[in-house]
Amino acid sequence: MPTRLLLLADTHVPKRARAMPEEVWQAVETADVVFHAGDWVEESLLDELEARSARLVGVYGNNDGDLLRARLPEVAEVTIDGIRFAMIHETGAATGREARCEARFPDADVLVFGHSHIPWDTTTRGLRLLNPGSPTDRRRQPLCTMMTATADAGTLRDVTLVPVARVSQ
Question: What is the pTM (predicted TM-score) of this model?
């Protein structure tokens, strides 16, 4: 049976946005698995995502303090519907990213990451790299974003970058 995925990163609640946009919560409630690639900022967001997600996979980011780091790993690795996922917050500079990540995560099929707030979807010889951007802080991007996808019998399909309306500060 296909598994509906939601990919989030760099939410920065409540520093960059007072709250998560309602459309993100709607996506959380329809997803089978929610990935969050770090920079939560407050433990209360982790608590709420844990409560509202069917399954949550998370890592800490560079803006996450000791309490979040005590609850979340730097790297998460899970297999969902035959697809081996790895997730980390930061992968370094865009130049050379694919080769670095392929070497660091040789057993992964998909790497989810954040940090830059820049959506990313590339494939190397054996690794797909996905950054959903940020649903709350677009920085220099035209839109706030998140990603959805479907894991189905070992195949990742329907990867979609979803624009998110900004929450006013």
Answer: 0.95
